[in-house]
C-alpha cells in the first residue's frame, strides 16, 4: 500500500536550534543598538562641543575688548568685572562657564625678579565651558591679555606667588595639586595642577597658607606660628609688586613592616605587644624651648605574629626607640644589621627587624612528650599573663623580674600542666605535655 504524500512526517526545529538562532539574532540586534547609541553619542558630543567652543571664543573676544584694568574676576585677585561662573542655556542644554584670571611673570621683557619692579607683566585668562548629562564634556581655552604701556602694567597692584614642587631627587613633580588657602579659615582661595610642577599665583598683599599634594604621594605645606613657634616653612608673605618663591618636596609614599624579636637563642623568638616610637628626621619647625618638632613621630605596637605594618610613610631617615626593653640591633632586611637611622626611599616597602632584650626573660617551649614535636597555640599562663605558642611551640615572656613564677600550660587534646619556674637572666624552660588517652 502506497502512503499519500500528505501523511509524510515533517521535521521541525529543536529547542537547541531555536535557542542558538535567538542568541545569534540577539547579538545582531544588540550590535545594531550599540552602533546606534554610539552614533547618537558622537552626534550629541560633536554638537555640544561646537556650541561650547563658540561660547569660549565669544567670551574670550569680549574679554579682549575690555580695558586692561577691567580684566579680572569680581571679588578675586586680580579684581575686575568678570563673573567667576555663570550658566548659559542653548538648545535645551545648560553650559557652565568658568573664568579664571592670573598675572604672569615673564622674563621675556628682559627683567626678572627681584630687579623687576613691575612683575605683573600681563594677564592670563582661562575660560572653561562644561556641560553635564549622559554625554557631558568640557572645552577650555587660554588667552594672554597684555597691557598697552609700561605705566598700565605698573599700575596693577598685588604680588605673585611662585610655587615649585620637586621630588626626593630634585626633579620637578608633574601635575601636583597646589592649593593656596586662607590661613585663618583654611578656605581654598586658588588652586592649580600644573603639568610642569611650577605655577605663578596672582594674589593680593597678605599672608597665605600653601598645601601641596598628589595621589599616592607625600604632602607638604606651610605652617603658622599658632601651630609651631618657629616654622621651618612659614606661611607665604605676598608683598606689593614682588614675587615670593616657595619650593616644596614630595614623592611617592612608602611602607614599612617592623618585626619585634628577642635576642635569646638562634631562633630570635617572637615578642608581641612591644610599643616603640618611630620618628623621622624631617622637622616642621622648633617649639618654644627651641627643640625640633618632627614631621612624623608616632608610637606603634606589634601584634601577633610579632610585627606591625605601617603604611603611607614619607621618604626619610627613621629612628626607633623602645622604653621598656633594650634595643640591641636593627636589621633590614632581617638578618642584615644596619646602623641607625634607617633610610626609607620613596615608593618602597621595607621590612625592619628590631632585636630586643631585657635583664630577665623566659623562653617557654611546649612539645609533645611522645614525639617531641612542637605544640602550636598552647596557652601559657605566667602569673596571670597569658600568651600562646607559635609554630615552633614557643612563647617569649619579656621583660620579667628575677622571681619564682607560677606557670600553667593548656592545649587542646593534652593534659594540663602546672608548676613553677625560677627566672634569672635569660631563662629557658621546656614543658612536655601528655596526650589525653
Explain what this protein looks like in three dimensions:
- By secondary structure, the chain is mainly beta.
- The protein has 4 domains: 114 residues, Pantoate--beta-alanine Ligase, Chain: A,domain 2; 91 residues, Immunoglobulins (Immunoglobulin-like); 104 residues, Immunoglobulin-like (Sandwich), CATH 2.60.40.10; 73 residues, Carboxypeptidase-like, regulatory domain (Immunoglobulin-like, Sandwich).
- It is 13% helix and 42% strand.
- The protein contains 2 helices and 31 strands.
- The strands form 8 sheets. Strands 6, 7, 9, 10 and 12 form a 5-stranded antiparallel β-sheet that branches. Strands 19-14-24-21-22 form a 5-stranded mixed β-sheet, with no helix packed on it.
- A hairpin with a 5-residue loop joins β16 and β17.
- The longest helix has 50 residues.
- The protein is flat.
- The mean pLDDT is 85.
Count of runs of 4 or more consecutive helical residues = 2
Helical fraction: 10-25%
Number of domains: 4
The termini sit apart by 88 Å
Low-confidence stretches: none
The quaternary structure here is single chain
Q: How would you classify the helix and strand content by structural class?
A: mainly beta
Report on the biggest sheet: 5 strands, antiparallel
What is the level-2 CATH architecture name of the largest domain? 2-Layer Sandwich
Helix and strand arrangement:
Blueprint: H1 15-64, E1 85-90, E2 93-104, E3 122-131, E4 137-145, H2 150-154, E5 159-166, E6 177-181, E7 188-192, E8 198-203, E9 206-213, E10 220-221, E11 230-231, E12 236-238, E13 243-249, E14 254-262, E15 275-280, E16 283-286, E17 292-294, E18 297-301, E19 307-313, E20 316-321, E21 326-331, E22 337-338, E23 342-344, E24 349-357, E25 361-368, E26 379-382, E27 385-388, E28 394-397, E29 404-410, E30 417-422, E31 426-433
Parallel strand pairs: 5-13, 14-24, 25-31
Antiparallel strand pairs: 1-2, 2-3, 3-4, 5-8, 6-7, 6-9, 9-10, 9-12, 11-16, 14-19, 15-18, 15-20, 16-17, 20-23, 21-22, 21-24, 25-28, 26-27, 26-29, 29-30
